[in-house]
Amino acid sequence: MKSYLLVGLGNIGSEYKGTRHNIGFDVLDEVAKQHELSFETLRLGDVASFRHKGKMVFLLKPSTFMNRSGKAVRYWMQQKKIPLTNVLVITDDIHLDFGTLRMRQKGSAGGHNGLQDICDQLNTTAYARLRFGVGAAFSKGRQVDFVLQPWNANEVADMPIAVDISAKAVMSFVTDGPATAMNQFNGNALNPS
User: pTM for this one?
Assistant: First the structure.
């Protein structure tokens, strides 16, 4: 049976809940909700798993804090013998407008410390990622403050739709493969063309 590892990036702790940087956690929470799963706190992260259309799917929310996410990803890939092609990392992206989704099968970290640590730990940039646009409404040097802030009121109103579509994109990666998922979901989740 093929196994998949879906990794949502974020920071543990109630002070980070509902912040832009934790969108990876939010998307995995939605996947878990839709499949009636609960997470279990295990080594290096919160983990849930389920069978889906003949495949085994593992959800991982690393407990290592964002900038050390690679250690958890590497550990769970090894534990569950999951090939790199079956790993998808969900993360925030300031280079994309709010609600824009971009799935890629490989690429640079784009200045994202969580993705960079995964690249460093796995010694490759050739892993799939789903970037969720959080916008860039911050002044020079205020990026960290921005991504660690809660969503604004307009964003909060749109979040249920954006997160639901992101969860569907993640599951499409598992069932249909990355090419189909990219064709179907890349673009603005709130205003599909």
Answer: 0.95
